[in-house]
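Input record, target 12 of the design panel.
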């Protein structure tokens, strides 16, 4: 037994100088002094020895325990006294970069659009997602039997309460609140009971523009959209109007930008047409002015609306609208 104690002491003395960090010191403590440690084992076995032997071995074992304890205490003291940069930390290692998030591509696109129109003097206006039929349809001159009110297109909450199907109701709310001149854009989320595919979602985003004053003309509309097209896609991009119909504008147009990707020659993005359809627009219908108590003899105005997803898909070359809502990090990180 005494032999074994001597061997343990030698082992401890040999191991102690190498224990220069907290982990190694703790390993020594566990090996010798913990509940199942070697010294503890000997001390616990003393009871089984003959009285004679017990005295001698007990003394040696206790000495060893003290030696180990003070050795460990000293090593810990030394460790504490050392400056941090000498504690076996390799301060030349490159740091670990913290993981950073970023703005969703839709939000980035929205901010870009807002910035462009603010530069042209448009203010921001917002309205509720849960909207009244009066604002979403009636004041915008939709007849009672218009197909857009159909249950298949509109999520109804109650008979006259619905999830807005476009951002145009914010035009009405804004004109109720302000007297002309009015110049606002109204970004926001809209809802339609659509069958979902690569270019349709049931929840998506629009940006609406409205400008009302005396003598606002179709030329102002075209100039504004052209300036917008050029800031977004470059100086050579042009705007095309084609006749269309919306209940709240007269005349109404659909507008397209010449394809910035091929310069109008025809490519995959513009489906070989040279043009990319962006949205709807027109001159505010006098019926809408009557609904908000504007004098249609005195004021004219233009309005336009476009889908923010559509713009983001062009800017970031994203082929499927559903990718925006899946939050796959590969797509999100690619746009940061
Ligand atoms: N609200 C229309 C839609 O959701 C888009 C639109 C068309 C907005 C013409 C307008 C406009 O302001 O003048 O399809």
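The sequence produced for target 12 reads:
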């Amino acid at each position: 037994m005494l032999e074994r104690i001597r061997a343990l002491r030698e082992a401890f003395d040999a191991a102690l100088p190498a224990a220069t960090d907290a982990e190694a010191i703790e390993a020594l403590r566990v090996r010798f002094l913990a509940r199942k440690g070697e010294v503890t084992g000997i001390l616990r076995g003393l009871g089984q020895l003959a009285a004679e032997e017990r005295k001698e071995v007990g003394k040696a074992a206790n000495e060893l325990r003290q030696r180990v304890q003070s050795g460990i205490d000293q090593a810990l003291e030394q460790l504490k006294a050392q400056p941090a940069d000498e504690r076996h930390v390799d301060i030349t290692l490159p740091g670990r970069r913290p993981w950073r998030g970023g703005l969703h591509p839709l939000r980035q696109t929205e901010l870009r659009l807002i910035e462009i129109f603010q530069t042209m003097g448009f203010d921001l206006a917002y309205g509720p997602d849960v909207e009244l039929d009066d604002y979403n349809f009636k004041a915008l001159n939709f007849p009672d039997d218009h197909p857009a009110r159909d249950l298949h297109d509109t999520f109804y909450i109650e008979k006259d309460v619905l999830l807005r199907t476009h951002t145009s109701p914010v035009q009405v709310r804004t004109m109720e609140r302000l007297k002309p001149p009015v110049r606002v854009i109204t970004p926001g989320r809209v809802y339609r009971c659509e069958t979902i595919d690569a270019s349709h979602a049931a929840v998506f985003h629009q940006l609406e523009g409205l400008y009302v004053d005396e003598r606002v003309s179709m030329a102002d509309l075209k100039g504004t959209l052209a300036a917008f097209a050029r800031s977004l896609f470059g100086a050579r991009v042009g705007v095309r109007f084609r006749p269309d119909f919306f209940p709240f504008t007269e005349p109404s147009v659909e507008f397209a930008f010449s394809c910035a990707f091929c310069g109008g020659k025809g490519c995959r993005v513009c489906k070989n047409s040279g043009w990319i359809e962006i949205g709807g627009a027109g001159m505010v219908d006098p019926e809408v002015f009557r609904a908000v108590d504007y004098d249609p003899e005195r004021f004219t105005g233009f309005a336009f609306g476009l889908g923010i997803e559509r713009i983001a898909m062009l800017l970031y070359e994203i082929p499927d609208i559903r990718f925006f809502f899946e939050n796959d990090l590969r797509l999100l990180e690619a746009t940061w």
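Residues 51-81 form the longest helix (31 residues).
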